[in-house]
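Notes from hallway chat w/ T.B., transcribed later so I don't forget. T.B. wanted the structure written out for a chain they're using in a teaching module, and asked if we could keep both sequence and structure tokens in one place. Agreed to drop them here.
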Amino acid sequence: MKLATLHDLYVDELKDLYSAEHQILKALPKMAKTATAPQLAKAFTSHLEETKGHVERLEKIFKKLGASPKGKTCKAMEGLLEEGKEVIEEDADPAVKDAALIAAGQRVEHYEMAGYGCVRTFAQLLGYDDAAELLQQTLDEEGAADEKLTRLAETVINVEAVAPAGGK
């Protein structure tokens, strides 16, 4: 696809996010299952439900555009989730692994926030006000998920990881 206009870029970036969200839908259950802290597992499970809503919003935007959401693979998300998979497979103290899961999760959230911020701005510039509103809702949810992970890290998980059971 040639990116001749901002509209072309907008559609291309939306496809990238659609691919990313679908990859996340597959990864979050594994992250939740791996998490040992119940609050962390709950945070991942809760974000899984939000992610389903993100996909629905994107599908709504594509329908209004008369475009297909398919046709692009988000390589960046593949890489981020591959790193997350390495964390899942790592032999680590449970609290340290939970801290690593949060770090991996926040990398994903930050990528999504950057992507949604860009497409929201494109939608505003292109006059797609309804889409801009939907994208802002998703951006707000991604930010809230990141904040939740930060709070968990700072108040529970990382604190426990400071002195792992078999550590120094």
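Follow-up for T.B.: Residues 6-158 form a domain with the Ferritin fold (CATH 1.20.1260.10). Might be a good example for the class.
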